[in-house]
Amino acid sequence: MFSKTDQKARIMIVDDNRDNLRVLSDFLDEIGFEVWVAPSGETAIERVQYAIPDLILLDVMMPGMNGFQVCSILQNNPLIRNTPIIFMTALSDTHDKIKGFDLGAVDYITKPFQQEEVLVRIRLHLKLYFLQTTLAEKKCIIRAVNSKFGAKS
């Protein structure tokens, strides 16, 4: 099912494995997402300074800076804090999953992944993200209107 959100959404894939980057980026690009790739955590952190994705698919096990470290840094950036982060990893231990959620991830996909599962999770978290963003914008508008006309919010 193709949704209007797919055409608008910008997804960053962060993975040191070129095959994973290629397979996922090709798949998501064909669906209509705008796909950005980052072959390392350091690259991802650098790129979000220039443009903010709507969702991040983040590998946990990478050389240098691992996904947990990247997630922690991104969560401390007020511009990125609300961007959904989905971990992708071969780590299936409950402790690792809990650690990811505690750091701010919204979901956890275990490798090897099925493309259809990844797509369903992406669409779910994009929908929630866009709904939260719309709600926050409407709250700001209501506060501004109430402030202008002296009503209490």
Describe the model.
- The structure is a single chain.
- This protein has 6 helices and 5 strands, in the order αβαβαβαβαβα.
- α2 links the parallel β1 and β2 (34-38).
- It has a single domain, classed as Response regulator (Rossmann fold, 3-Layer(aba) Sandwich), CATH 3.40.50.2300.
- α3 runs parallel beside α4.
- Strands 2-1-3-4-5 form a 5-stranded parallel beta sheet, with helices on both faces.
- It is an alpha/beta fold and 153 residues long.
- CATH C-level class is Alpha Beta
Q: Low-confidence parts, pLDDT < 50 over ≥5 residues?
A: none
What's the tally of helices? 6
The end-to-end distance, rounded to whole angstroms, is 40 Å
Mean pLDDT: 88
The counted number of beta strands is: 5
Tell me which CATH architecture applies here.
3-Layer(aba) Sandwich
What is the strand arrangement across the widest sheet? 2-1-3-4-5
**CATH topology grouping:** Rossmann fold
Indicate the proportion of strand residues: 15-25%
C-alpha-based Rg, rounded: 17 Å
Shape: globular
- What kind of assembly state do the chains in view correspond to? single chain
Can you write the helix and strand succession as a string? HEHEHEHEHEH
How much helix is in the residues? Answer: 40-55%
Identify the CATH homologous superfamily.
Answer: Response regulator
Structural class: alpha/beta
Number of domains: 1
Biggest sheet architecture: 5 strands, parallel
